Amino acid sequence: MGFRAWWASASANLRGSVYMLSALLVYAVMVGAIKHVGGVIPLVQILLIRQVVMSLIIFAFAGGGLRLMMRTRRPGLQIVRSLLTLAAMLCGFTAVIQIPLAQATAIGFSQVLFVTIAAVIILKEVFDARRWAATVIGFVGVLVMLKPSGEGLDAFALLAVVGAVLNAGITVSVRMLASTERTDTILIWQGMVMIAALALPTWLWWVPPDAAQWFWLVVLSLFGTAGQWLITRAYQVGEAAALAPLDFSRLILASFTGFVFFAEIPALSTWIGAGIVVGATLYTIRKNARPFPREPASV
């Protein structure tokens, strides 16, 4: 049986899983490249270049022209979501650059826990006591990874938590946009808002990249775009409840990338806290009977 015949006969969840795992591999390259150049090139410059490349690719492949893509019923919410995405990237990628990849990745899993709280407050969803208990336990895992001591908390690890909070806000905002907005509309608004917001700080802090740095900037931009398409396609094809647990393989990829390329060895507290957060998050995902909206990834 050839690949095309196998692919055509595969179940929707299997095909979605292939898209999801491919997206995670692509994102691992992107994050590693950001960590590599982030010590020299300002993060705002990296994000601007990434967003320009992504917007050009989206515009080239999306049908209907720019005017159709920009058409929206909720411009205010589009701008809020885009600014949340920018803030989440600034916090999350700063953490990636400054702390071990495995720790930053594991803390990022707490996003689902923050979505639970936001869904209650903003979307007025009702959760039972067991789901709330899982949320509290998950936050205990986050505290373990933050390693509170007499000297306080790790500021960059706290930035990873803030990034998770902001990503939860992005998820909720996409739930609110899902009924009226197209995916390419959400992405092109994100691109326009982020480019406008990043233009001045990038100009002020511009560092001329050398040839090797330009190579990695282009790579992370292309891989970021490919990852966004793959993960969006995964949720279009498969069931979110079946695909979401695969996201935890990011921790293995992050640990491997950090060890091989950056000589990072995750602390025991990272593994213990990650185990607690993953367990609580898996329980929360299982209790969420409804599929998540088909939202493109934001980092």
TrEMBL record:
Membrane-crossing segments per the record: 12-34, 40-62, 83-101, 107-123, 132-149, 155-174, 186-206, 212-231, 243-262
Pfam families, A to Z: EamA (PF00892)
InterPro entries: EamA_dom, EmrE-like
Keyword annotations from UniProtKB, A to Z: Membrane, Transmembrane, Transmembrane helix
Entry GO CC: membrane
Residue ranges of every copy of the EamA domain listed in the record: 15-146, 157-284
PANTHER family: ACYL-MALONYL CONDENSING ENZYME-RELATED (PTHR22911), BLR2811 PROTEIN (PTHR22911:SF103)
Protein name: EamA domain-containing protein
Native organism: Bosea vaviloviae
